[in-house]
TrEMBL record:
Domain Carrier: 1-78
InterPro entries: ACP-like_sf, PKS_PP-bd, PP-bd_ACP
Name this protein carries in UniProt: Phosphopantetheine binding protein
Keywords of the record: Phosphopantetheine, Phosphoprotein
Species assigned in the record: Tahibacter aquaticus
Source organism superkingdom: Bacteria
GO-annotated molecular function: phosphopantetheine binding
Length: 89
């Protein structure tokens, strides 16, 4: 299974926040193991909101505690086509 566009975005955004190379982030590693605390979680949530131009709840990070799980949740909530159209715009 390949990495989705949304998963790539989340991986890049989180890597930037954590100041590490995005290729060092496994999409299945729990956020807690990556050191994502509540402050970084808020910043990550804002990055996602800015990208999606939609309201994003901090609680979604706790309910979907990895890049892959969060990407799948966001794909279901906002749609995959929506993400692809934003990238080509």
């Amino acid at each position: 299974m390949g990495i989705s566009n949304r998963e790539q975005f989340l991986q890049s955004a989180l890597a930037e926040l954590l100041q590490i190379d995005r290729h060092e982030l496994s999409p299945t590693t729990p956020f807690a193991e990556l050191g994502l605390d509540s402050l970084l979680g808020l910043r990550f949530t804002r990055e996602i909101q800015d990208h999606l131009q939609a309201e994003v709840e901090l609680e979604w990070l706790f309910d979907n505690p990895s890049i892959r799980q969060l990407a799948e949740f966001l794909d279901g909530k906002f749609g995959v086509a929506d993400m692809q159209s934003r990238q080509t715009a």
